Structure formats: structure tokens, C-alpha cells
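Tutorial, part two.
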Amino acid sequence: MLSDTSKLARANRNGAAHRLRAMLTKAEEIMRAETKPQRPICCELDPSTGRVIASIDFVGILPPADHAGDTDVMNGIAYDAKDDRLFVTGKNWPKLFEVRVKPK
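Running the prediction step on this input gives:
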């Protein structure tokens, strides 16, 4: 369990502790459900519909030789509008990649 809220539940009379316990339980369920490996894919969304209108698959951008014990998911994306390029990195990645995108 993420946190023991049993003492808080007894001390709280307005139900906030019960709601907190429910939220923690839901968070645990979500974390257990997310057992599929994550793929480094960047998507462009249509702001009016929320639909994906373009995507870039970055699978393999970080060579296996650069993976260490704490290397994790791609989570850093920045766009340079002036030069029309992307910068991509990840959690505990040893490299920052400059990416130029060409439409298919």
C-alpha cells in the first residue's frame, strides 16, 4: 500500500481520509495495470478534437550501449521553432538528441 491512512481515517470526521484512501487505492491499481513496456513515441494532437494527427516513433534512438541500470523512459521533448527542430532526452539518459523531422 502506498500509505497507511487508517489512523487518519479514525481522526478525520468529514470523510477526507476516506477519499484519500480511495485515491491511493486507485493509484495502486493504475500502477499495477501499467505493466506494458513504454514506447518512446511523440504525438501531435489536434487541439480541438484531442485526436492524434501525427506521431514520431523514437524506438532505438538511445543505443543499447548507452543504457545503464537506471536508464528509464524518454520524457524530455523541446521544440525550437526558430530552427524547426526537436530536442529529445530521457530519464537518466546520458545524451540529448537534436532531431530534425521530415514528413513522410
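The chain has a mean pLDDT of 77. In part three we will examine how such features are distributed along the chain.
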